[in-house]
Amino acid sequence: MSETKQKNSISVFFPAYNDANTIGKMVEDALEILPRITDGYEVIVIDDGSHDETANVLNRLSEKHSRLRIVTHENNKGYGGALRSGFETACKDLIFYTDGDAQYDAKEMVNLIPLMKTEIDIVNGYKIKRGDGFNRKIIGGLYNRTARLLFGLPVRDVDCDFRLIRKSALEKISLNSSSGSICVELIYKLKSAGCKFDEIPVHHYPRLFGQSQFFTFKRIFKTLRDFFSLWLKLVVFKKDK
Predict the structure, then answer these.
(1) CA dihedral 46, 20, 216, 228 (to 10 degrees)
(2) What pLDDT score was predicted for residue 194?
């Protein structure tokens, strides 16, 4: 990346749920890399009703870093609820987000910046190699292929939550999903609003601590239910684009 800093300001946010073992490093990594990118930046963590030590970790970090903002959900609102809070809270020109469980390297956000050219509205990552077990790879692959087929998505990996988005693009759409289906809703609605995409490969690592919000029977069932409801609403009946 050029040594010339971006004129655009950047909000970085991490949705976190019981990520006490990883969220500290994610925040520290972001705060290390962002001053090299722009002078106008903020880091936000959405604590989505965690019941481990996440809140204590974040409180200690906030005492050290004035650029860190914490949004706390008293009750878990689901992945979609956490993302919507992040998008609503972020106030800079560009918004980057990835998960707080450290399956992605926050420092790789620097690689997305050069692709955010004037004509581009969203830079979407895609996994070089998925760092999950066999079952999750199969479920994730099927979900991703089905989403691309039914919604005609312009990205190869809608399940890759490593994204840089113009705030002005997000202001063109409204998001309603509370489950993991929000990623499909996000990409589909941005495409329908005429937004332009670019993609970049990113590394994906095994989850070392805790459990994913998505890969439980209850979460998978809710996401699939919301997924097909979204398809009927947006694609079949063409409502609420």
Answers:
(1) 20
(2) 97
The structure's pTM equals 0.92
pLDDT in tens, 188-239: 999 999 999 999 999 999 987 655 555 555 667 777 888 899 999 999 988 7
**Does the pLDDT at position 95 exceed 60?**
yes
61 neighbors 27 (Cβ within 8 angstroms): yes
CA 139, CA 116: separation in Å to the nearest integer?
A: 31
Between CA 128 and CA 199 the distance in angstroms is: 12
Which strands form 41-48's sheet, in the order they lie side by side?
Answer: 68-73, 41-48, 10-16, 94-98, 162-166, 122-127, 197-202
For residues 191 and 147, what is the distance between their CA atoms, to the nearest angstrom?
14
Residue with tokens 């749920």: 17
User: Radius of gyration of the chain from Cα atoms?
Assistant: 17
Domains in the chain with CATH codes: 10-236 (3.90.550.10)
